[in-house]
C-alpha cells in the first residue's frame, strides 16, 4: 500500500531559518520571543519576530528591494523553496505537473494593506493602490507557486490557527487520490497591526513571555514565520524520508467564535481520530506537540481533551510556542517540521517557562530537553477559532 512520506522540510521563524538553526535553538532552550521592532504599534507587545526586515528577505530571494511584496509571501517563498530543494535530494516526483502546492495563511497581504489605509484615511487622494493588490490570501500562494515552478494543483487554506495543519491534510488527500505525486504543504503568516489589535481586543495577549499549561498563564505571544513539509509517494523516493504522515483528523465543535469548549470536545475528536487513522493505540504516542497557546481557555480545554484521549497515561507533551510565538496559520507547518525533527533526532523538546501545574490533577508538560528518546510517533495538534481542530500523526517508519 502506498504511504505518504515526508521528503523535505523548510522553516523560517523567530528561532531561525532552516532545520539546523531551529533544532539548535530548541536544544539550547533559546526562545525567540522579544519586543516588537518591525513597526510601531499603539501598545507594547512581546512577539516572535523573524529578525530580518522585508528588504533583507528580498535580498535572500534575489528580489528587487523596491518590489512591493507582502511579508507573508516573502516568508513563505523562503521556507517553501527550502523545503522543495530539500525534497529534490530525496529524488522522484520531479515532474512539475505532478507537484502541487497547498498554502495556508490568515493575514495575507494585510501588512501592506495597512500602509495603504493609513495614508488613505489621512487623505482620500493618497495611498498607493499597489499596496492592496496582494491583499488576498491567494496572492501569497500565487507568488510561492511561481517561485517553486509548481505547475500542478495549487490552492489556499485559511482556517485560522489550524490552517497549515489542514493544508497538510489536504495535501495528503491529493496524493491518495492520485492528483499529485508530491505536494508542498504548510503555511505562512506575518505580524501586522491587525492581528495585534484583534488579539488584544480579545484580552489574550500576555505582556510577559507566554507560559503554556502553567497556573499563571495569562495569554499568548503572537509570532510570525513559515513552515512547509513536502509530502511524497513513498515509492518514488531514493532517500530515507524524515518520516511518514500516518494519520490525521479534522473535527469541529462549533462551540464559540474564538473559545474552546471546557470539555475539549473538538480537540478530543481530532486527536482520537488521527490516532485511529494511524492504526495505533494512544499508548503508542511517544510525544505530543501540543497547541498550547498559553491562554487560560485553550490550555484548560486542551488538557481536558488530553485526559479524555489518554487517561492517566498522557505521554510527554509540551508547546513550542514559547520559542516561536503563536504564528497563527503557519503554526501547524512550523510545528510539523519540529515534530519530524523530534523523530529524526530522538529529541523531546521542553515547554519553556512552566513552573506550576494548573491544578492538582493537571498533567505536567515536559520541562527539560530529553535527548536519546525513541520517538516513533508524534501527535501534533493545531486548534483554530470557530472550533476548527486538526491533529496529525507523524511516524518514524
Question: What structural category arises from helix and sheet content?
Answer: alpha/beta
Number of domains: 1
Assembly type:
single chain
Assign an overall shape: globular
How many β-strands, per DSSP? Answer: 13
CATH class category name: Alpha Beta
Q: Give the helix level as a range of percent.
A: 25-40%
Please give the largest β-sheet.
11 strands, mixed
The helix-strand sequence is EEHEEHHEHHEHEHEEHEHEHHEE
- Count of runs of 4 or more consecutive helical residues: 11
Q: Do you know the CATH topology?
A: Peroxisomal Thiolase, Chain A, domain 1
Distance between the termini: 14 Å
Strand content: 15-25%
* Uncertain runs: none
Can you give a write-up of this model?
The protein is of the alpha/beta class. The chain is built from eleven helices and 13 strands. Helix 3 (about 70-90) packs parallel to helix 5. The radius of gyration is 20 Å and the shape is globular.
Summarize the SSE layout with pairings.
Blueprint: E1 4-13, E2 16-17, H1 18-28, E3 33-35, E4 46-48, H2 54-61, H3 71-88, E5 99-104, H4 110-122, H5 137-148, E6 154-157, H6 163-176, E7 182-189, H7 193-201, E8 225-233, E9 243-252, H8 265-278, E10 287-289, H9 296-310, E11 317-318, H10 321-324, H11 331-345, E12 377-384, E13 388-395
Parallel strand pairs: 5-6, 5-7, 10-11, 10-12
Antiparallel strand pairs: 1-2, 1-8, 1-9, 3-4, 7-8, 9-13, 12-13
Helix pairs in contact: 2-3, 3-5, 6-11, 8-9
Amino acid at each position: 500500500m502506498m504511504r505518504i512520506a515526508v521528503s523535505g522540510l523548510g522553516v523560517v521563524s523567530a528561532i531561525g531559518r532552516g532545520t539546523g538553526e531551529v533544532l539548535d535553538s530548541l536544544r539550547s532552550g533559546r526562545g525567540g520571543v522579544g519586543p516588537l521592532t518591525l513597526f510601531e504599534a499603539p501598545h507594547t507587545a512581546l512577539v516572535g519576530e523573524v529578525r530580518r526586515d522585508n528588504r533583507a528577505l528580498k535580498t535572500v530571494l534575489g528580489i528587487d528591494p523596491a518590489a512591493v511584496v507582502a511579508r507573508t509571501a516573502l516568508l513563505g517563498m523562503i521556507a517553501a523553496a527550502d523545503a522543495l530543494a530539500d525534497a529534490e535530494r530525496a529524488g522522484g516526483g520531479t515532474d512539475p505537473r505532478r507537484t502541487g502546492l497547498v498554502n495556508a495563511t490568515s493575514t495575507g497581504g494585510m501588512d501592506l494593506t495597512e500602509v495603504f489605509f493609513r495614508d488613505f484615511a489621512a487623505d482620500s487622494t493618497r495611498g498607493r493602490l499597489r499596496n492592496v493588490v496582494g491583499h488576498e490570501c491567494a496572492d501569497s500562494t500565487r507568488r510561492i507557486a511561481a517561485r517553486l515552478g509548481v505547475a500542478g494543483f495549487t490552492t489556499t487554506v485559511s482556517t485560522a490557527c489550524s490552517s497549515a495543519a489542514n493544508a497538510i491534510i489536504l495535501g495528503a488527500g491529493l496524493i491518495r487520490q492520485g492528483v499529485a505525486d508530491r505536494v508542498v504543504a504548510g503555511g505562512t503568516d506575518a505580524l501586522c497591526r491587525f492581528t495585534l489589535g484583534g488579539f488584544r481586543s480579545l484580552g489574550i495577549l500576555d505582556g510577559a513571555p507566554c507560559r503554556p499549561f502553567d497556573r499563571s498563564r495569562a495569554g499568548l505571544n503572537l509570532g510570525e514565520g513559515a513552515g512547509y513539509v513536502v509530502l511524497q509517494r513513498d515509492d518514488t523516493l531514493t532517500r530515507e524520508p524524515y518520516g511518514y504522515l500516518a494519520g490525521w483528523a479534522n473535527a469541529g465543535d462549533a462551540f464559540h467564535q474564538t473559545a474552546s469548549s471546557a470539555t475539549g470536545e473538538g480537540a478530543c475528536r481530532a486527536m482520537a481520530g488521527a490516532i485511529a487513522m494511524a492504526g495505533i493505540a494512544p499508548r503508542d504516542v511517544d510525544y505530543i506537540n501540543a497547541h498550547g497557546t498559553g491562554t487560560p481557555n485553550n490550555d484548560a480545554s486542551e488538557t481536558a481533551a488530553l485526559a479524555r484521549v489518554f487517561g492517566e497515561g498522557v505521554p510527554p507533551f509540551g508547546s513550542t510556542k514559547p520559542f516561536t510565538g503563536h504564528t497563527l496559520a503557519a503554526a501547524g507547518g512550523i510545528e510539523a517540521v519540529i515534530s519530524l525533527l523530534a523523530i529524526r533526532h530522538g529529541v523531546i523538546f521542553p515547554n519553556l517557562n512552566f513552573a506550576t501545574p494548573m491544578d492538582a490533577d493537571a498533567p505536567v508538560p515536559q520541562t527539560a530537553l530529553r535527548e536519546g528518546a525513541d520517538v516513533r510517533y508524534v501527535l501534533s495538534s493545531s486548534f483554530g477559532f470557530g472550533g476548527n481542530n486538526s491533529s496529525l500523526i507523524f511516524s518514524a517508519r
